[in-house]
Specification:
single chain, 320 residues, alpha/beta, 2 domains, 4-stranded mixed sheet, 12 helices, globular
Length: 320
């Protein structure tokens, strides 16, 4: 399959490498950077969880024209950069192209449908979530820091044959995936996990394991997650607090040594995804008449930290 991964951050780089190792024709697309240049020149150095190293040859580009002919486009940029990163591709994608977002937060698929509309035509845009984890310690190198499952689906009920084929392609490439009928449940469950873990670890300056070990942080995470469940239920998405809290605990333990992407962003003075995660919960809650004060507090505190950083340069939308 001819695939383009949009976003040369940790997750985009990891996924591009896995798909290339699965004998697909893969292009890594992103803004010009030292990382993208190194990957294009000498391949990506992939460090596996057992410490093993391998060099994965990858095509890498910042030229939208090079994406022409892609059968599948996977979007893995920061949520706030979705339109900026993908709108240059609207001229080279067709109605036959499949676009899958595996980004954090809410609203990414809708943003993509708008950004990729060209003369009344746009590709199919489908949603997905992944619990894989990665870290990019230096340009040209990515560490695979956590295994997980990836789910993809449509906003309407029912996974079609093309979605099933894409999931099979991912799995055959060492990226375990399933096509599901209830993708909204997966999206909201992942949102709840992110909303519970990311801002707390970012503000406390602790790795993910602290959520499962510190009683105060665990209680705060539970309060955040419960609000997400309430908003999801009001929207008609059937998830429950017990399954979400179990998922929060599982992720905190499984990725214990990891620093959340929000913590990394704050440490580097970069814009976070707070608006697409906790902020989106608050906004959707207001629309539905459901209060989410804990998420509102996290949103305000993270935004204050971002403002304090007084960003001097535009951050990279590729970061993940």
């Amino acid at each position: 399959m001819r695939i383009t991964v949009v976003g040369a951050g940790a997750m985009g780089s990891l996924m591009a490498a896995r798909l290339a190792m699965g004998h697909n024709e893969v292009m890594l697309f992103g803004r010009p950077s030292e990382h993208l240049s190194l990957v294009g020149e000498r391949g990506l150095t992939l460090v596996e969880q057992d410490g093993g190293h391998r060099s994965v040859p990858l095509a890498a580009t910042s030229d939208p024209a090079a994406v022409r002919g892609a059968e599948l486009v996977i979007v893995l940029v920061k949520a706030w950069a979705t339109a900026e990163a993908t709108s240059p591709l609207r001229e080279v994608l067709t109605r036959d192209t499949a676009v899958v977002t595996l980004q954090n937060g809410l609203g990414n698929a809708a943003t993509l449908r708008s950004a990729l509309l060209n003369a009344g035509v746009r590709p199919s845009v489908w949603m997905g979530v992944t619990t894989q984890a990665a870290f990019r310690p230096e340009p040209g190198v990515v560490l695979h820091t956590g295994d997980g499952i990836t789910a993809i689906g449509r906003r309407t009920i029912g996974a079609n044959e093309r979605l099933k084929a894409i999931a099979a392609c991912f799995s055959a490439s060492g990226w375990p995936s399933i096509a599901v009928d209830d993708i909204h449940r997966w999206v909201w469950r992942k949102l709840a996990v992110n909303a519970a873990i990311n801002p707390l670890t970012a503000l406390a300056g602790v790795p993910n394991r602290a959520i499962s070990r510190d009683a105060g942080l665990r209680a705060a995470a539970a309060a955040l997650a419960a609000e997400v469940v309430a908003v999801a239920n009001a929207r008609g998405v059937a998830i429950d607090t017990s399954e979400v809290l179990a998922a929060v605990e599982e992720v905190a333990r499984a990725t214990g040594e990891n620093r959340s992407s929000m913590l990394v962003d704050l440490d580097h003075g970069l814009r976070t995804e707070i608006d697409a995660i906790n902020g989106a919960v608050v906004a959707e809650g207001m629309r539905l008449g459901v209060k989410a004060p804990a998420n509102q507090l996290m949103t305000a505190l993270i935004r204050a930290r971002e403002q304090q950083a007084a960003l001097s340069e535009p951050p990279s939308p590729d970061a993940e």
